[in-house]
User: Fold this.
Amino acid sequence: MIISKNNEINLIEVLKNRNIINQITDKNNLKNIITEKKIHLYCGFDPTADSLHIGHLIPLIVLRYFQKLGHKPIILLGGATGLIGDPSFKLQERKKQPIYLINEWINKISLQIKLFLDFNCGSNSALIVNNYDWFSKMNVLFFLKKIGKYFCVNQMMNKESIKKRINKNTQGISFTEFSYNLLQSYDFAYLNKYFNVILQIGGSDQWGHIVSGIDLIKKIHKQQVFGLTHKLITKNDGTKFGKTENKTIWLDSFKTSPYDFFQFWLNIHDNLVYNFLKMFTSIEISTIEDLQKSNDNSIKKVSAQNLLAEHMTYLVHGENALESAKKITDYIFYKKLNYLSKNDFHMLLTNGINNIILKNKNYSLQEILILSKLAKSRSHAKNMIESNSIYINNKKRSNLLYFFTEEDKIFNHFTLLCRGKKNFCLLYWK
Assistant:
């Protein structure tokens, strides 16, 4: 841990060394302020689904770092801005959702956030606010006169996220989305005035909005405030992990089971895993670097992925879910189906791997591969069977005309279907 001259933890340097910080305004001044006194800071989350996903973990972890040092984190949930939709680096306008649905999502997201921060620790207890509370009372004249006059359209149009949309002849950008920057900027100004917030944090794609908020506060409140962005979580190919991806990794255990969550981290590429250990965990940097050096110089590697998977699953889902995910992984991947009890299979069905429920009738292997989504089409199913990549209860099946039999049903109800080494589906026969 990095200690400053007055024996205070230098949080900015801690976050920098963990490769979390992307950009920061007036770094030295902010560093001095947060070591000399306790501040209020905030991060905003728009409710665009009924659950947060792994892309939201870093800002929550950053807020927790600040709170542990006595600072007060405020979470702004965008009941109003969620109705608008942030256009930043989006190829097209978000689908607009009704307010009742937005409120349902806010309630669910609030419960998730409470797992990461302390809401009962005195003066620095975390707080959740909803920007619908102030925007719903604002009329259009106030908006244009008190907020709009401080924004230059020329400058707004030069923002990279806006330019990309304006230059698209087919879609363009609506005035609704164009005004999003003003709304988020006012959020910062409102929280600065009524909650003494002096720091906003967000992903690197929020930098333009954060700087606009800083400028607005300087103009209307004559006060210096700060912004800090964290690096976005990206895959090995550089694309962002998020809910627009084909398979989103949600924090809600009903949307992404603890087993699937555990498997996601277990399969992180070697090029990313050590950086993720620095960003997501509190493991000492020197320990992570020693692990990487040891693995680089050894044929028999210690699994950094396993360390990451255990830490993240425990963080999000708790000890019981972690133990369940480890047990399932061990039994399935190391072909120990004989060790699974009937109750274990029921646990798999309710909390574990991908599964489908089938009627007791004759199904061909090709049909089930398609139903289970392990194959995209009948030709795809045929290719996988012929290439010896399909297993039923850990037994290879290469017969194109194979039909499931009673012998395939463990405890008369369960069949484990596998494509390759990592793609599973549990069949439950009624």
Notes: Residues 180-195 form the longest helix (16 residues). The domain at 11-230 is CATH 3.40.50.620 (Rossmann fold). The radius of gyration is 25 Å.
